[in-house]
Amino acid sequence: MFEKGKSYSREEIHLVVGGNKQSYLPRKNGKVVAACLRQDLNPEAPAVILCGANPPERAAAGQLARQDGAIPVFIKESTTTWKYQGMFRVVGSDTHPQVCAQYAANSPWTRGQIKRVLKLEKQLLT
Questions:
Q1: Is the Cβ–Cβ distance between 100 and 110 less than 8 Å?
Q2: Looking at the 3D structure of the chain, how many domains does it have?
Q3: Taxonomically, which superkingdom (predicted)?
Q4: Between the chain's N and C termini, which has fewer beta carbons within 10 Å?
Q5: Which of 13-22, 68-77, 99-108, 112-121 shows the lowest mean pLDDT across its residues?
Q6: 89 vs 122: CA distance, rounded Å
């Protein structure tokens, strides 16, 4: 699948997991199949994902919060490369405005832009 610490293009990620190549939470067959995160917008990534207000983004974040299992997580390294961080699963999700505002304070997002905070935990290989 993916090798920890190695960089991949969005096309390479797409060929393995599918989903929308532009979405930071690409979905295939109703499931989120990866997270491709920008650290400038998600300062605590990969442990925390900040989700905005647009409908497709909210739907993907809600799906990820509900689904079981781990997904591969990537952090943007350059305009064309994404570094693989490992397999992560959601261990917490919060939509309360006060909680979201707390995370927005430490990011470039404004107070009302964050609509969900997802907390992830790295899965160790057995």
A1: no
A2: 1
A3: Bacteria
A4: C
A5: 99-108
A6: 7
